[in-house]
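User: Predict the complex.
Assistant: Input components as received:
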Amino acid sequence: MTTQLYIDGIFVEPASGRSFPAVDPATESAFASVAAGNATDADRAVNAARHAFDDGRWSQLPVAERTAVLRQIAAGIRANLDEIAALETRDNGKPLPEAIWDIEDAAFCFDYYADLADAAEARGDTAVDVGDDRFDSRIRREPVGVVAAITPWNFPLLMAVWKVAPALAAGCTVVLKPSELCSLSCVELAKIIDAVGVPAGVFNLVTGSGPEAGAPLTEHALVDKVAFTGSVPTGRKVMQAAAAGIRTVSLELGGKSPFIVFADCDIDKAVEWILFGIFWNKGEVCSATSRVLVERRLYPRLLERLKSEAEKIVIGPGDQAGVKLGPIVSKNQYEKVMGFLDRAQHCGAQRLTGGGRPDGMETGYYIAPTIYADVPLDAEIWCEEVFGPVVCINPFDTEDEAISLANNGPFGLAGAVMSDDLERCDRVASRLRAGIIWVNCSQPTFIQAPWGGYKSSGIGRELGEAGFEAYRELKQITRFDHHETWGWYLGTENAQ
Ligand code: NAD
């Protein structure tokens, strides 16, 4: 199978005539070819999106018609759920049940934003009291315009849909550039969007590498907003490119999220959520709770339990029943994580389990669940995002110390706290400097609740109402009562 780009309502070959392989990380073999889009394709796609936006074929469509189309996309995703989830697992390596969660969420996301768009239409303009009866002032919300959406490989379809669904619901037009490592589920989305009859140019897909297909989108003068999810270094480049044209950007970037565990909690629950917090999706999760802080009283017992439970995790191809940890997404990412593990050997931390390729697994980019304890606070493995199944654990003595350790660092995407004392949980939640705080759990994510980071973890919010408003401009419309006279120039002095 060789994929095509989707530009102006047509599936087309890339201008380069080239493609690159999609590799199954469980077998290390190519199983499809992906169209290598470049600046020419990006330019064509942006022009198509610009034209489609400016002539109002989508933004001026009655909202009920637009939202009916969004619901058809949701239905189309659900109708193909098994195939898309299997493809996602093959492309990315994630366990199939986790891929199914992603695809179900993607479908729901279209329904959810259809509902929000309907509700916003029913509300209409918002009146503003400007304190002067002669003026009628109101706020109208309008689509931002042409959106370039650039997304990562860890939740390939879902991260794209977090942008595409609210953008389309708001009336924007979109050019999507998924990660070159996992593009195939987004090609399936393009097929569904095409099949339900979204007008040409409203949604465009340009697959390809970051520098060749992504960068031209961030620099394009006809793009109104760049919505980016990915790493901090690329986010910085995206923001720099957008600065040249004063384009709006939203950035969902990396993290090194803390999980504070107090000794009064149920140890089984702590073990469950710590493991889920770092090992689901192979630890390739921006919000993974990769730094765990445990109250000293519980520390030795918890370490023992974590080690023994982590060693029971079934590792294998994502499509195999019972597997809870699939292969790392790609050779490059595998080598990157292995590099962290190699360097960690000399940092003074104690490795409890894992640390490399699981015994007997020669093929596939597998890395065993890895736990480090007593990690020096300046160790690379404690400070930097690994983006793999690697967790660092340290003890603490007081609540203040835990919060200070948790807040130390450049990231602020997520954090978690576990204790039977709910007042304490709430207090800690308030003091953690992060956009998402989980109490007595880690990772559950809801389309209805805002998502995004403090500090270097990003700018702006996705999901929830905030994720819809991120694709709408605020327009002030202020009307002066035409029966009144202003009189500054034409009236008597001080008539105003
Ligand atoms: P990445 O930054 O390497 O790539 C992200 C996207 O940017 C890809 O589509 C890539 O092709 C593109 N890109 C690369 N260079 C570009 C350039 N110069 N201009 C424009 N686009 C360019 O990130 P990744 O490795 O795909 O994803 C992993 C990172 O994403 C991690 O740091 C993770 O924490 C982060 N992430 C964050 C969230 C969140 O919601 N905050 C969610 C998922 C992943």
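The mean pLDDT is 97.
Let me know if you want any component modeled separately.
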